TrEMBL record:
TM region(s), chain numbering: 48-72, 84-103, 123-143, 164-184, 204-225, 254-272, 292-314
Source organism superkingdom: Eukaryota
Membrane topology, as annotated: Multi-pass membrane protein
Family: Belongs to the G-protein coupled receptor 1 family.
Organism: Hucho hucho
Residue intervals of the G-protein coupled receptors family 1 profile domain: 64-311
Taxonomic lineage: Eukaryota, Metazoa, Chordata, Craniata, Vertebrata
UniProtKB keywords: Behavior, Cell membrane, Disulfide bond, G-protein coupled receptor, Membrane, Receptor, Transducer, Transmembrane, Transmembrane helix
Descriptive protein name: Alpha-2B adrenergic receptor
The keyword Disulfide bond is annotated on this UniProt entry: yes
SMART domains: 7TM_GPCR_Srsx
Length: 346
């Protein structure tokens, strides 16, 4: 999620406003002219550790989510149409790791926005888009689970790959609608200082936090409460009842895995959105320390690398698919190494 504007009660990472520096926008090849000494926000040691930790997180996010996509597309046991949601969610996490986190990291370590104004606008919109799309995917997955359990026959007929793909397109379109306002409400201060931040007005903060996080969270919680109630009713059914494919242990495990994914997402992002919303509700009295808010900010991004880990721990089909993919890659690596060795000998 794109960082919030700088406020009196907290200093926001990601796209900070450096109001004590003289920065001037130019139309030449360099976006800014430096007229004052910039002091890095961290020591060299802390900068190196921070950079290594976030770089490792980016690598894990990219590799893990690529494995998820390959597994769903190649493993027969994962060919269910509902898993297309996981492919799209993994793609969103990969985009976060490649298009958002590197620039957030550079901005965090340098203490100022060192890139062009146009990229600032694109960066902010994409950041909100990818975060919103992640939780929108989780909402869609929750509703898919609920319908498959509550209406197994009628929904099972409609639950085709084509319809799931349409639902994914709708998810991305709704996410784009929510993330579009940053392009129209960027706060650019006057006097030659280039500011890359979201609108700090109350309406936008409440709009973004409620639309991108709190409302979807309430929907998912309500849906999973209903799923739990239905599952409880099923356990009371007579043993003579015909078995339903949506009540099998495999489906129950998959529902549990998705519940874990949603729970981890909420745990990772709730501190940031809650702290961010405090600025709008209590602008004069919110007292979130800057280091704590920075921690909340980056914990949210860490969520992008956790889903593949959750699938590996809790889902046997994903474990088997990952092992198969990695074994094939290792065999190809050994073959390439052997060919290279033979060429050197010749």
């Amino acid at each position: 999620m794109a960082a919030a504007p700088k406020v009196t009660c907290l200093s926001v990472p990601g796209v900070n406003v450096i109001t004590n520096l003289n920065l001037s926008v130019t139309s030449g090849s360099a976006p800014y002219n430096q007229t004052a000494l910039r002091i890095p926000p961290y020591s060299p040691e802390a900068t190196a550790l921070f950079a290594m930790a976030i770089t490792l997180m980016m690598i894990l996010t990219i590799v893990g989510n690529i494995l998820v996509i390959i597994a769903v597309l190649t493993s027969r046991s994962l060919h269910g149409p509902q898993n297309l949601f996981l492919v799209s969610l993994a793609a969103a996490d990969i985009l976060v790791a490649t298009l958002i986190i590197p620039f957030s990291l550079a901005n965090e370590l340098q203490g100022y926005w060192a890139f062009r104004s146009l990229w600032c606008e694109i960066y902010l919109a994409l950041d909100v888009l990818f975060c919103t799309s992640s939780i929108a995917h989780l909402c869609a997955i929750s509703l898919d689970r609920y319908l498959s359990i509550s209406q197994p026959v009628s929904y099972g007929i409609q639950r085709t790959p084509a319809n799931i793909k349409v639902a994914i397109v709708v998810v991305w379109l709704l996410s784009a609608i929510i993330s579009f306002p940053p392009l129209l409400s960027l706060d650019k201060s006057k006097g030659g200082v280039e500011v890359c931040e979201l609108n700090n007005e109350r309406w936008y903060i409440l709009y973004s936090t409620i639309g991108s996080f709190f409302v979807p969270c309430l929907i998912m919680i309500g849906v999973y409460i209903r799923i739990y109630q239905i599952a409880k009713q099923h356990t009371r059914c007579l043993p003579r009842e015909k078995p339903n494919p949506n009540k099998t242990p495999g489906n129950k495990r998959f529902t549990f895995v998705l519940a874990v994914v949603i729970g981890v997402f909420v745990i990772c992002w709730f501190p940031f959105f809650f702290s961010y919303s405090l600025k709008a509700i209590f602008p004069e009295t919110c007292l979130v320390p800057a280091p704590l808010f920075t921690f909340f900010f980056w914990i949210g991004y860490c969520n992008s690398c956790l889903n593949p880990v959750i699938y590996t721990i809790f889902n046997q089909d994903f474990r088997k698919a990952f092992k198969k993919i990695l074994s094939i890659l290792w065999s190809l690596f050994e073959l390439a190494s052997q060919l290279a060795t033979n060429q050197n000998i010749v």
